[in-house]
Structures are given as C-alpha cells and as structure tokens.
Write a structure and sequence with these properties.
The complex is a heterodimer.
Chain A (H helix, E strand, L loop, with lengths): L2 E5 L3 H13 L3 E5 L2 H8 L6 E5 L1 E2 L2 E2 H9 L9 E5 L12 E4 L4 H11 L1
Parallel strand pairs in A: 1-2, 1-3, 3-6, 6-7
Antiparallel strand pairs in A: 4-5
Chain B lengths: L1 H12 L4 E5 L5 E4 L1 H7 L14 E3 L12 H8 L6 E6 L5 E12 L5 E10 L6 H14 L3 E6 L4 E4 L1 H7 L3 H4 L13 H12 L4 E9 L5 E12 L5 E10 L1 H19 L3 E6 L4 E4 L1 H7 L3 H4 L13 H12 L4 E9 L5 E12 L5 E10 L1 H28 L4 H15 L4 E7 L9 E6 L9 E4 L2 H8 L4 E3 L11 H9 L4 E8 L5 E9 L7 H61 L4 H31 L8 E4 H15 L4 E5 L6 E4 L1 H17 L6 E8 L3 E8 L6 H6 L19 H11 L3 E7 L3 E9 L3 H12 L1
Parallel strand pairs in B: 24-26
Antiparallel strand pairs in B: 1-2, 1-6, 3-4, 4-5, 5-6, 7-8, 7-11, 9-10, 10-11, 12-13, 12-16, 14-15, 15-16, 17-18, 17-22, 18-19, 20-21, 21-22, 23-25, 26-27, 27-29, 28-29
The chains are: A alpha/beta, B alpha+beta.
C-alpha cells in the first residue's frame, strides 16, 4: 500500500483529502504544522508528499526544498497546493495544485506521480 | 673829445653799415647791429679778429686767421684798403663784403686798436650771368611769376603762370591783371597797387584767383615793386603759389586730428618696436596714462603679462602689412585694473609705402562684456532652474529629489558645505527633528537625524533667506545661533534658505557654508530661493504620492490575504460537493448538486478576478509566451458558454483554417470568456450573440456582437477603467473589473480592445492582436526539433 504524507493546516481540507485518498486505497498520514511534520519524517519515508503552501509556522516551499536536499527523501515526489496568488513562482515541487481543486484532478495528479 | 667820441660811437651803433672795433690783442670790443645781421650771429666775449662764423677768399678758398685783414692790420699794422671777403654765416649762407680797416691811435699817437667797416656788396656774379640765371629760374618755376605795370597790364607770364591759370603767355601778355582776379577780390588789387606805388613789398598774401576755366584757386602771393634805374616804381612782379593742395591736406589733417582728439576710443600709434608715438584723449581716458607719460614708452605697459605673446603676434602681422580687426582681448589700466577691449590694428606706411609702425584703435568693451556675462549668467541660471525643476517634478521619490537638489545646489553655489535639513515626516515628535542630507552620489545613503537648536529655529521662523558674509563680523551676543556657528563650524560665510510648505509651515532648509568671506551673493540666494520653492512643492507631492502608494500597497496586500482566506473554505466546500455528487442518489439531487457547484465556480472566479486585478496593479501577473490556435480557442469557449445561457444562441464565423497567435492562451481565453459572458449578461431581452474571427493583413481581429442595452458615448470612453460600470447597468451583477482586466491583458499582448455601441441597440466589442512574428515561429520550431 502506497503511503502519502499530507501537510495541511486547515482541518476541513485535511479531512477531505484524507477521506478522498483513503477511498482511493492510499495509506495517509496527516500533519497540521511543520513542527509536527518533521517529528514524523525522521521515522519513515512515504511514496508522496502533498504539502500546503501557507502554514502557521512556515511555508510548504521551504519544506519541499528541505525534503529535496535530504538523501532519503530526494526522490520522493512533492505536490504543492495553494490558494496563494503567486503559485506560478513556486519552483522546486514536482507538481502544483491550485486551490480550490477538482477532486478528480487531485486523484489523477497523485496517481500520475506515485 | 671824450663826448665827441661817444656821440660818434652812437652814430656808428645805429648805422646801417656793419662796424666793429678790436683792441690790440685783437679782441672784439664793440660791434653794431648791422654787423650782427651780416654775421648772422653775435660774437662771444673776447672773440678775436672777426665776428663771422667762417671767412673765405672770394674764390671760395678758406681764409686762414693770419691772412684775415683784421689780423694783418693789428699785428702787422697793414691797413690795406678794401679787401674783398666772403663771410659764411652759421646757417651756411654767404655774404660778400668789402672789408675796410682803419687804425685807432691814442693821444700819444700810439696804436690802440682798430675799427672795421663791412660793406655788403652782394654776390660776386656778373650781371649777365645773374640775368640768365634769373630768367631760367623764372621759367622753370612751378610758381606763377607774373609782372605788370602800374596800370595792371600784364608784362610778363611764365610757364608756371600758364599751368596755374590756364592762359598761354600770348593770351596773357597785354591783358589786364584783372583777368585772373575774381570780381569779389578786385578791391584787393587796388590796395595792392597803392602799396606798391609806395615801394612796399607784399609777402605771402593768401587770396583767391580765378583760372581760365573759371575755377577759384587759393594762392599765396608775394608782390614786389619793380623800379627803374632812377628808383621810380614802374610795375610789380608777382609770384603766385598754388596752395590748394597744401590747403586740402592741411584741412584734412585738421579734420583728422580733431576726430582723433574727440574720439572716445583710444587711438594710438606705435613704431615697429612697439614704442608709442601718439596718444589721444580717448587713450588717456581708457588707460589712465597722460600723453606725456605714454609717448615714448613701450606699448607693453598696457598689456597684461599673460597676454604679452599677443603683441609679438600683432607686430609680426603688421610687418607683413596685415590688419587686425576687432580683436577682443584684455589690456591693463595704469592702476593695474584689467580692461576688456576690442582692438583694430592697421599698419602705418610712409609716403614710399614702407611700413613704419601701426595705428591701434582700442575700444573699452568692459561694459558690453560685463552685460554679456550677466546675460549669459542669467541664461545659465534659468537653464539650471529649468533643469532642476524638471528633475524634481519628474520624480516622486522623496529621497531622490532631495539628493539631486542638494547635489545640484551645492555645485551651483560652489559651496564647501551643502546640507538640506528636512522635517522627519515619519517621526512622531516632528517639530525640531530634522533629517540632514549632504552631497552624495549614492541616493540610498542613510540620512542623519538632527535636532534643531532653538536659536536656529528662531532664525528660520523668520522665513527669510539668511546671508552671512563674514561670521567674524556678526554680533554673537545678539543671536546665540551665530555663536554656535562660530564654535562648531570653520566656515566664514553662510547662506541659509528656508523651505516652506504650502501651508506656510517650515518644512526644511538649505544650509551652505564656505571658508571664504563673502562667498555667497544675493544672486545666489535668489536662485536657491527659487529652487527651494520648487523643491518644497515637489517634496510635498512626493510625500502625498508615497502615502497613496503605501495605502494602495496595503489594499493589495489585503485583497491577496482576503482572497486566500476566502479560497480556503471554498476548497473544502467544492471538494465535499464533488464527493457528494459522486454519491448522488437520484436525479433531482444531481441537478441541485450541479447548480451548487456552478455557483461555487462563480464565487471562485470572482475571487480570481479580484486577485488578477491586484496582480496587474502590482505587476505580478505573469504571462506565458506560446503559439496557439485562436480559432480552436474561440470554438471551445463558445461551446462552454452555450451551456451557461440556453436563452442565447451564439452564432460564429471562425473560418476553416487555424489562426495562430502568440501569447498566453489562458489569458486570451479569459478575455474571450469575459466578452461573451458580458454580451449575454447585458442583452437580457435578446437571443443572439455573434462572434467573428477576421484575419487582416497585419492583425487578427475578434468581434463579439450583442443586441442588448448598448452603451452611451461617455460610458464607452470609461468602460475599460477599473471599477467602472455603465449607467444603464444597474440591476445587473458585476464588480466593474472584467473589462479592465481584459484591456490589461490585451495591452500586454500589444493588441487593442475597443467598442462600437449605441444605447438600446447593442454593442460590438473587438480585440485585435498582432500576427506572430516569423522569427518567433522559426525559433519555436527549432526548439521543438530539439
């Protein structure tokens, strides 16, 4: 079973994505902030990261850069989602997903990167 | 005896016959007036033998002293009678005399001296020779020599007379002398005849005579009586000299010299060595030297040291016969002061044409030069003022304005210290806190904060420009500010120019210093005062601009944040709805779901529009640059729009072949969607929308036509402004930013967007876009091959 780590601060969106992806047969772990995220990342490496951009203790792009510069996570695909207006400027992630998104679009994007 | 001798001496003294006496030593003891006239000199005291300058034998051999008859008489007692001598006078003229010595004896009959008579015999030439010589002289003379009898009948007429009066000898002889006397001068002739009859001679009498052609000729006449052997006056000889040329040149000279004298210009002549030969009144006025001081001095006394090479250049040109015209240079006054002059130098030639010197006319142009300089300065100042105003009014950046102004003004006033103090707008307690800016090339230098002294504040509050010419002379007790300046700074002169805001409040001041006394002029202060006024208004504008800018930035930040906040719940809302839609139980809930999701999309696109607008404002909207088929894009967009409004039919003419366009496909789609949805939105009672795609020579044109409410002319003008909504659009939803965004997008594609419309008849919107460039196409093809 493929594992997806989700970093998203909004409870509703977190719940939505978790529910959606679990119905698609993925094993999902969710984190509400960066601090929590890094605590877990030391233990196991997932098959894909789904990161929100704007977070209470930093931003998803920084997290992405960190992951890409660490040997264990370098080859793990990262999808960055955001309602931020300057989404186009965010380089470094494998894919970008603007909010609000279509659920089908999200499912398709994940399956194409995993 | 004594008396008799005395009276005899008196007679001799006044005798027309030359007479003198010598003692036994030969020293001259007495001589009469006639003797001095004959000698042409007076003998020195104790001069010996004879008072003549030199003595000659009649045959032109010099007479040795021991052969002189006086020497012979006294030394040898040889009182030979009547020897002939020629006496040379100091003026080298000769007199032939008969020398008659007579011995004088004392009572004891001893020789005590001698007296001598000298009788003028005239020159020793034969009468015949004399006559021949005289007639040759008469004939060859350039003067008219005429003789006449006492009746005035012409009896002699030489070739000179013929030349001057135009009558030949044959014409003139026997005629009356009145032939050559103009009517107005006839009385003169009577007077002349009268004087001649009395044996008088008339010399150098200047008058007018008339020639054969009737022209009056100025003449100088000398008329002598002609006497017969008995001494009776029988006629007159008349020598007439034509003086017209002499008169003319004399008159000319008089005129010229009076011109030279009365001229205000310096007129100077000098020789080829540069020695001053003449000096007029104008020269004295301009250069200060009197004629006595100047004539004979070197011209170099007028030339400043650094200009001395000029003079050798001028002299070398003069030697070549060249003239120097209106040469502007500097010369020196007697007092050492320099004078701006314009000089013209011409060579002076003698009558043979040889260059012997130069005449120099110098005009004092100090005043012209000064006024020219003043004019130039004024122009420069005007230009500076213009360029300063332009610089600062073109700019709305406070920091840049203030830096440029202090840089320019410091240079302009040639100050050693130049500072602009300006109220710190952002500081809370602003009254006496100022920012200080000094000359710098770096416009980002941090300004120093400066707290204003109470005393200086008082000075500035007067709002007058303050000029301190010499701080040493200022009374430091009167104003403690002067004391502070003296203590803290090393400058001697200062200029302080307050900068007043429009409301009359002091907003800053210019402060300049210089170590030289009296460095700043009132002209400086006027110019800086002007600049200060310009600066004040520019700075105020820039301050307002900065405020507006910062408010606008805050607004953009707010919209970005708000849209993000709005999108977050929208994301989960949309997600859950889509998931719900998939679990859809029956047909009705399915339709409701679809409608709900449509509204979510609408809400999302409203938020997107708001975001686009702020991104356009801040220049953060990015554009892709791709080549795509506009026909395909239009077809797809029309297809989608058809679903959103079943009441309207969208009729299209798009042609059959692809129409390639360069730009951002997504943004162009946004524009087309906006135009079609507007056409639908603003034609609630119509059922037709027409979309056309036209390919022109250089451009591609999209037309979207509706038959709706239309637009007034005023609305058409403002339609593409942000937040603008047409007057007749009330009751129709919209934010007034769709066309604004469309226009911005089309502008960025170097295209244009416009509208043709009439109220109540509908509108046609058109967008023209340039055809893609060939280079772009080939470049893209290359890229694709890679």
């Amino acid at each position: 079973m493929k594992i997806i780590h989700i970093l998203e601060d909004d409870y509703n969106i977190r719940e939505l994505i978790q529910m959606l992806l679990e119905t698609q047969g993925y094993k999902v772990e969710v984190f509400a902030n960066i601090n929590e995220f890094w605590k877990m990342e030391n233990e196991n490496v997932p098959d894909l990261f789904l990161l929100d951009y704007m977070l209470p203790d930093g931003n998803g792009l920084e997290v992405c850069k960190n992951l890409k510069s660490t040997d264990e996570t370098r080859d793990v695909p990262v999808i960055l989602m955001s309602a931020h207006p300057n989404l186009l400027n965010m380089e470094g992630a494998d894919a970008l997903l603007p909010k609000p998104f279509d659920v089908d679009e999200l499912v398709q994007l994940i399956s194409s990167h995993i | 005896m004594e008396n008799a001798q005395q009276s005899g001496m008196n007679i001799l003294a006044n005798s027309p016959v030359a007479f003198y006496t010598c003692n036994l030593k030969g020293e001259i003891t007495f001589y009469n007036k006639a003797a001095t006239e004959l000698w042409g000199r007076e003998p020195k005291p104790k001069e010996k033998w004879c008072g003549s300058w030199k003595c000659w034998y009649p045959d032109n051999e010099q007479l040795p002293a021991e052969d002189h008859p006086a020497y012979k008489a006294i030394k040898d007692g040889d009182f030979q009678e009547k020897s002939k001598l020629r006496i040379e006078r100091p003026d080298h003229s000769f007199r032939t005399v008969l020398f008659i010595p007579q011995a004088e004896y004392d009572e004891a009959n001893n020789l005590k001296g001698s007296h001598f008579f000298l009788i003028d015999t005239g020159d020793c030439v034969t009468e015949q020779l004399k006559n021949a010589t005289l007639s040759a002289i008469v004939e060859s003379s350039d003067d008219a020599i005429i003789s006449k009898d006492l009746n005035g009948t012409i009896t002699g007429w030489n070739s000179g007379a013929e030349r001057i009066f135009g009558y030949s000898e044959a014409e003139a002889l026997g005629r009356s002398i009145t032939l050559i006397i103009p009517d107005s001068r006839l009385k003169e002739e009577e007077n002349i005849i009268f004087r001649l009859k009395n044996g008088e001679k008339i010399e150098h009498f200047e008058t007018l005579r008339i020639n054969k052609a009737g022209t009056l000729i100025p003449l100088s006449l000398s008329i002598s009586p002609i006497k017969d052997p008995n001494g009776k006056v029988v006629g007159a000889s008349k020598v007439a000299r034509d003086i017209s040329e002499r008169l003319q040149s004399f008159e000319k000279q008089v005129i010229l010299s009076s011109i030279v004298e009365s001229s205000d210009d310096a007129i100077i002549s000098k020789d080829l060595e540069g020695t001053i030969m003449s000096w007029n009144r104008g020269a004295q006025q301009i250069f200060g030297y009197s004629e006595e001081e100047a004539v004979g001095s070197s011209i170099t006394m007028l030339i400043p040291e650094e200009k001395l090479s000029e003079e050798s250049l001028i002299l070398s040109k003069i030697r070549n016969g060249e003239k120097i015209d209106h040469f502007e240079t500097v010369r020196k006054h007697k007092s050492g002061r320099e004078i701006q002059v314009s000089i013209t130098v011409s060579p002076l030639k003698n009558h043979n044409g040889k260059i012997i010197g130069a005449s120099k006319v110098a005009r004092d142009i100090s005043i012209q030069v000064k006024s020219q300089k003043a004019l130039k300065k004024y122009n420069e100042n005007l230009q500076i003022l213009n360029s300063v105003s332009r610089t600062i009014s073109e700019n709305l950046n406070f920091r840049q304005i203030i830096q440029r102004v202090i840089n320019i003004t410091t240079k302009l006033t040639e100050s050693e210290l130049g500072v602009i103090f300006y109220k710190n707008i952002n500081a809370e307690e602003t009254k006496k806190k100022f920012l200080a800016f000094t000359q710098s090339e770096n416009e980002d230098d941090e300004a120093k904060v400066f707290e204003l002294q109470e005393s200086l504040y008082d000075v500035l509050e007067s709002r007058q420009i303050l000029l301190i010419h010499d701080i040493e002379k200022e009374d430091k007790k009167v104003n403690p500010f002067y004391r502070k300046l003296k203590e803290k700074l090393d400058y001697k002169s200062y200029m302080i120019v307050p900068v007043m805001a429009k409301n009359g409040v002091l907003s800053g001041f210019f402060f300049f210093g210089h170590t030289q006394k009296e460095h700043f002029t009132s002209e400086n202060s006027l110019l800086i005062g002007n600049i200060a006024a310009h600066t004040a208004s520019s700075l105020q504008n820039s301050y307002l601009f900065e405020r507006v800018k910062s408010l606008s930035e805050k607004k953009d930040e707010f919209i970005a944040l708000a849209s993000h906040e709005l999108k977050t719940p929208l994301t989960s809302l949309k997600g859950y709805l889509q998931m719900l839609e998939k679990m859809n139980a029956n047909e009705t809930t399915g339709i409701f779901m679809k409608k709900t999701l449509e509204q979510v999309e609408r809400l999302n696109s409203l938020i997107e529009d708001l975001l686009d607008m702020t991104r356009l404002e801040t220049g953060k909207l990015d554009f892709e640059d791709d080549l795509f088929d506009l026909k395909e894009l239009l077809a797809e967009t029309i297809y989608t729009c058809n679903f959103s409004s079943p009441e309207h039919e969208i009729i299209h003419e798009l042609g059959s072949s692809p129409v390639m366009i360069q730009g951002d496909q997504h943004r162009i789609e946004q524009v087309v969607t906006n135009l079609i949805s507007n056409a639908i939105k603003y034609s609630p009672h119509a059922d037709r929308i027409e979309v056309k795609l036209e390919v022109e020579e250089k451009n591609i044109c999209i037309r979207v036509r509706d038959y709706g409410i239309g637009l007034s002319e005023a609305d058409q003008k403002n339609l593409f402004e942000r937040f603008y909504r047409a007057d007749n659009s009330r009751g129709i939803n919209g934010l007034g930013i769709g066309l604004y965004i469309s226009k911005q997008i089309i502008d960025r594609h170097n295209g244009c967007i416009g509208v043709n419309s009439k109220c109540g008849e509908g509108s046609e919107f058109y967008v023209t876009l340039p055809k893609p460039k060939a280079t772009w196409l080939s470049a893209k093809k290359e890229k694709r091959k890679e």
